[in-house]
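From the methods appendix. Each design record in this collection lists the tokenized structure first, followed by the designed amino acid sequence. Records were kept in a plain field format so they could be parsed without special tools. The example shown here is representative of the layout used throughout.

RECORD:
FOLD TOKENS (295 positions):
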């Protein structure tokens, strides 16, 4: 059986929006953030504040998303933040070419050799790292509330009403449901193995030994996921899925608030395009107030 995220009915403005509005607005902001050569904090930071406001309006309990946020923070900091801080890669050449005060130098050396180099950490690299992490967090807080605030029964309907095919609609619907199902099976299997006296928290030894000790956990979860997938396929075959266009029980209708949000998202995207290609605003720059903090 497929389960869903911790969806709850919340009487909030965000949840009263049409699911299509939520998805289209999210894509509008993401497209605005990922326009070519958009590195200016004057564009990224306002979009972050807007996204944060919408996230807080969703009223999602911290206990429901605490573990997810810890995982996201780890990925964003170590993959995006450290990469930008150490190398300045993933951005314009001005990050490394810009004349900027050096905060400190990190010596890096290849073990057991005499090969090494010094990596200067500049104010420009630090600011680029902060803006890149802000960009990633902005897109995250737009997407994270969706599985917690959209009725799981509306995923397929929303994508179908947006004009995609039945196959794509059901694919997206099942994708949203599969991950929490997999997580549920993983927790159940871990509890069952602990009840049998298997030590799950003491994985000693090398990589190969740890993988072998995880086999009693991995194999049942993978098998259960395979069985669940087969059951879904059989259920869809029994209902003759794919033989003719599908009808949908749920109906979606745009309200005035939906049109306002859609227009707002489109205006944000157009404004970002005009700022970039009309006024040349969007290139990377370090504000004076940030540089003065280290001078």
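DESIGN:
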């Amino acid at each position: 059986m497929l389960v869903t995220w911790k969806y709850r009915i919340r009487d909030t403005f965000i949840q009263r929006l049409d699911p299509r509005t939520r998805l289209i607005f999210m894509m509008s902001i993401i497209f605005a953030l990922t326009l070519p050569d958009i590195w200016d904090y004057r564009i990224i930071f306002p979009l972050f504040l807007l996204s944060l406001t919408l996230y807080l309006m969703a009223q999602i309990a911290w206990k429901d998303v605490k573990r997810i946020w810890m995982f996201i923070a780890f990925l964003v900091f170590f993959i995006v933040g450290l990469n930008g801080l150490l190398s300045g890669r993933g951005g314009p050449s001005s990050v490394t070419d810009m004349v900027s005060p050096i905060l400190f130098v990190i010596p890096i050396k290849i073990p057991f050799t005499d090969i090494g180099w010094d990596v200067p950490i500049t104010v420009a690299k630090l600011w680029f790292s902060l803006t890149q992490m802000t960009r990633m967090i902005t897109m995250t807080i737009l997407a994270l509330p969706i599985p917690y605030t959209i009725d799981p029964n509306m995923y397929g309907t929303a994508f179908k009403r947006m004009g995609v095919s039945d196959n794509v609609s059901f694919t997206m619907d099942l994708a949203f449901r599969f991950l929490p199902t997999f997580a549920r099976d993983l927790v159940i299997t871990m509890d069952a193995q602990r009840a049998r006296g298997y030590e799950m928290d003491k994985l000693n030894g090398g990589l190969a030994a740890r993988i072998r000790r995880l086999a009693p956990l991995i194999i049942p979860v993978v098998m259960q996921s395979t069985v669940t997938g087969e059951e879904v396929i059989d259920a869809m075959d029994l209902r003759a899925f794919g033989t003719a266009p599908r009808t949908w029980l749920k109906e979606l209708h745009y309200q005035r608030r939906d049109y306002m949000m859609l227009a707002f998202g489109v205006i944000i995207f157009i404004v970002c395009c005009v700022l970039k290609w009309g006024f040349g605003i969007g290139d990377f720059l370090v504000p004076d107030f940030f540089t003065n903090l280290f001078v």
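APPENDIX NOTE: Strands lie at 102-109, 116-122.
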